[in-house]
Amino acid sequence: DAKTTQPTSMDCAEGRAANLPCNHSTISGNEYVYWYRQIHSQGPQYIIHGLKNNETNEMASLIITEDRKSSTLILPHATLRDTAVYYCIGDGSSNTGKLIFGQGTTLQVKP
Amino acid sequence: KAGVTQTPRYLIKTRGQQVTLSCSPISGHRSVSWYQQTPGQGLQFLFEYFSETQRNKGNFPGRFSGRQFSNSRSEMNVSTLELGDSALYLCASSLRGGIDEQFFGPGTRLTVL
Residue B50 has what pLDDT? Predict the structure, then answer.
């Protein structure tokens, strides 16, 4: 499983884009990058995942560098409800439901 | 459709006791994973079950065990409770495990006195 490094905390103004970086320099070719978030006192929530190409869904966009050593999660229009801990996960256990969570980034969206 | 449910939501036990936590996955999901969350260690993987078989196990002592039933419901058991076992225990279900999105339940808050 790839080791991931994220900033401890970030602030974002409401309505602006939130860009959350993640370094995963040890990621191997078949490991996906996953993003989950955990809003206080709730279970984690899946956001998005990708392998090589950039991905977009209704929640966010995931930009993965060409060398796959880092990625950025983009919340295009952050709201107060996006305040949460965001986890970037490099998953090598492609055949089992095992996620290795790091410390994550605490995103504070401010009015 | 109904999400992942966990029972009980809160539990208080004393040292030396044992506890069983239950998780009902989303209908049709066959993979159930368990995680422990503490302020000091964060979210840590305990084990994963698929079709009643444990496929993966985290680095926890043998006091932590689990099982999965034919309807995919899962239980985890902790024997001889220690103070350090106080934590939020989360289960997550997915269709097959692997790269599938995992859906987490609200967790069971266990307090060991």
Answer: 93
pLDDT of residue A93: 56
Angle CA B99–B103–B104, to nearest 5: 125
**Is the Cβ pair A49, B45 closer than 8 Å?**
no
Give chain A's radius of gyration (CA, Å).
13
Residue from the list B44, B102, B107 with its beta carbon closest to the beta carbon of A97: B102
Q: Once rounded to an integer, what is the mean pLDDT over residues A44-50? A: 94
Lowest mean pLDDT: which of A9-13, A98-102, B80-84?
A98-102
- State the count of interchain CB pairs (< 8 A) between A and B: 71
Kindly determine whether residue A100 and residue B102, on different chains, have CB atoms separated by under 8 Å: no
By CB atoms closer than 10 A (0-12, 13-18, 19+), residue B28 is exposed
Looking at the DSSP assignment, which residues form a beta bridge with residue B56? B48
Cβ contact B33–A98 (<8 Å)? yes
Q: Do B58 and A96 touch (CB under 8 A)?
A: no
